[in-house]
Amino acid sequence: MNPPLSTTHSQLSTIHKAVLLAAGRGTRMRELTDDVPKPMLRVRGQPILAHIVAGLRAAGVSDVLIVVGYREEVVRDFFKDGAECGVRVAYARQVTQDGTGRVVELAKEFVGGDGFILSYGDILIEPANYRVLASPRAEDEAMVSVKKNEDVSQGGAVFINESWELTDLREKPKPGEPTSPWYNAGVYFFRPSIFEFTARLEKSPRGEYELTDAIRALAQSGRARTVRAFELQGAWADVRDPEVLAALECASG
Q1: Which one of 5, 8, 119, 159 is most buried, counting C-beta atoms within 10 A?
Q2: How high is the mean pLDDT of the chain?
């Protein structure tokens, strides 16, 4: 469980901006994404992305940037300017699929000098968690959501200290490499300082610019503010393949 926040911690006003990464096809979904990008697959009658936007709106987010790419017209036709969803929606197009580190830089103009929530477009969480991410402490440079005892070989292993400060973050550790019980759950709060570190990224062994490398560099940069881990409460789903999608539909039936 997350440690309770001290009443001495000063709170920022609610974060009003969010960036959603929805440019990928999702090849593991096979024919399900022939006509739609993975974030537009439906769960409980609505696209995954619509559930995310609704949760963000309930947490006080008013402005959303959706990064689009594959079959972007499906996303644009559904959300338009966001008025029907109760938010303002803007779009940025990812032309080159070269990793999550570089794609975040498409949000620099949208973010300006403001903090923002960032989520992958295929991650479903309990909406109450967005409220925590939208109300960071003044001493938080960033927040990384985590879940316990997930398979870190499928994502990122998050290393934290007794104060819930992130000390390291390793993408898909292999057998024999350092590991952690905490899994990177794919939803974040960032200040604009994250762009300093995405700009310095070099390609990982996988041939991509990894957002996790930028987060690690930020956490280890010695800044006065910290990168804090936040344990998500309630249900969480990375809709990575047809089996997860089918299980979500069964659970909602």
Answers
A1: 119
A2: 91
